[in-house]
Design brief:
single chain; 345 residues; alpha+beta; Arc Repressor Mutant, subunit A; 3 domains; 3-stranded antiparallel sheet
């Protein structure tokens, strides 16, 4: 009898859910009573094995489960997407990607967490240096040698990273005919100003692009958002450092926005996402451990949020764990509403 690797099972099942692009999939589709050829070729085992695997993934919060009567639907969570990106690529998949990428291969491309920050910086700077800060995706995917070799970027990987940057509001996309145009936003410019670049990177910039980047480093986040209302949530600062005077309130607002806009399915917002959003809005100083951890813990003590620990850290990258809150006993990885629901009220 063929032995089925558990990691391969998880990868195949999570990739199937990820390919659904946010749609929930029923058990009948994931594990049909009468196995189809496609199901057998996926090497997931029998129906009972898939059910057991789904139960385990739901318990680990990598997969969401919605029950209506006797029907259950499943979808991948943000934690599941992060875990999927950390799983090793099978040898046959690597070989296939060495040639032309199959259009039917819809599984996410594995990202190297150590290179992703440098790759984001390159892609944002590439657009900032372009006329009108805009390129078609085809133009943007004509990558220089340094991007291919030192940053390990490919066209498909660059496109995948741009989709995520767009989801964060750092890029804006528009379709004209058969062309997809991508533009860096003011929010993306502010985020770019917080990023480090790869030591081997070589860039050609216009003076206008350089001036914009330098100005973004010096701007207050309220100005980057075009907000001149004086709203305390964005505008009040201590000594003009860029760090909000009430850091806990600012972090709580960021948490609620992320819970509403990107993590509404289960309301579980990774701490590293809150930290990165804080850095993008207010600068790196607002996101450091010695600056932000205290206010987050205080929100927890005051009953405004719950901080949730994880015991199985295999689904998180090294950088995601580093940006969580860790002590000798546990790793606090998620934020959620104090009552355990989404922070959207």
């Amino acid at each position: 009898m063929q032995t089925i690797n558990r990691t391969d099972q998880e990868r195949v099942l999570l990739a199937r859910l990820a390919a659904a692009a946010g749609r929930a999939i029923t058990m009948a589709s994931l594990a049909p009573v009468k196995p189809t050829k496609a199901f057998q070729s996926a090497k997931l085992g029998d129906r009972s094995a898939v059910i057991a695997l789904l139960d385990d993934l739901v318990g680990r919060r990598l997969v969401s489960e919605e029950k209506t009567g006797r029907t259950a639907k499943y979808g991948i969570t943000d934690a599941g997407s992060s875990y999927l990106s950390s799983l090793p690529v099978p040898a046959e998949t690597t070989a296939r990607r060495a040639g032309r990428r199959s259009k039917s291969d819809s599984a996410p491309i594995i990202e190297n967490p150590n290179l992703v920050p440098f790759q984001r910086a390159f892609l944002l700077l590439q657009l900032l240096s372009a006329p009108d800060r805009t390129l078609t995706e085809g133009q943007a995917n004509k990558l220089p040698l340094v991007a291919k070799e030192d940053l390990e970027l490919t066209g498909p990987l660059a496109s995948q990273l741009r989709r995520k940057l767009t989801a964060h509001g750092y890029l804006q996309e528009r379709k004209e005919g058969r062309s997809l145009f991508v533009t860096i936003t003011e929010r993306g410019l502010a985020y770019l100003a917080t990023l480090e670049h790869h030591p081997a990177g070589k860039f050609t910039m216009t003076g206008e692009a350089l001036n914009s980047l330098l100005a973004a480093r010096g701007k207050r986040p309220a100005e980057q958002q075009g907000d001149t209302s004086g709203d305390d949530r964005h505008a009040r600062r201590d000594g003009g450092s860029g760090v909000p005077s009430n850091l806990g309130a600012a972090a709580f607002e960021v948490f609620r926005e992320l819970a509403r806009e990107r993590f509404s399915r289960d309301g579980m917002v990774p701490i590293f996402e809150v930290r990165r959003e804080m850095a993008g809005r207010y600068g790196p100083a607002a996101a450091r451990h010695d600056t932000l951890d205290g206010p987050l813990l205080e929100l927890w003590r005051n009953g405004k949020i719950r901080l949730v620990s994880i015991s199985d850290t295999r689904g998180a990258s090294a950088s995601e764990l580093e940006e969580s809150i860790t002590d000798a006993y546990e790793t606090l990885f998620y934020m959620e509403d104090a009552d355990g629901h989404s922070g959207t009220r």
